[in-house]
TrEMBL record:
It comes from Brachymonas denitrificans DSM 15123. This is MYND finger. It comes from the Bacteria.
Length: 84
């Protein structure tokens, strides 16, 4: 009878340890899961890509900063020009 009690305690201890291990595994897997890609927007002034939450929207266009929003969009010709 004594051995049965010891066996039960060991079984319960193992069960608790096992469930904790599963929780840890699940948490680690959740942490490793790829995050939802954040939507990025392209600055209409300098062309840099920024996360939309950090971008500034102005006149239906996105900018990387308030400074560039104030300066406004540059024309494509100006953007690709070598003189800048
Ligand atoms: Zn910019």
């Amino acid at each position: 009878m004594k051995y049965l009690v010891v066996l039960a305690v060991v079984a319960i201890a193992f069960w608790i340890w096992n469930s904790k291990r599963k929780d840890a595994l699940r948490e680690r897997r959740a942490a490793q899961a790829p995050r939802v890609p954040q939507a990025t927007v392209r600055c209409a002034h300098c062309g840099v890509h920024v996360v939309r939450q950090e971008g500034v929207q102005h006149d239906g266009q996105w900018f990387c900063s308030k400074d560039h929003a104030r300066k406004g969009a540059r024309s494509p010709a100006e953007h690709s020009g070598a003189s800048s």
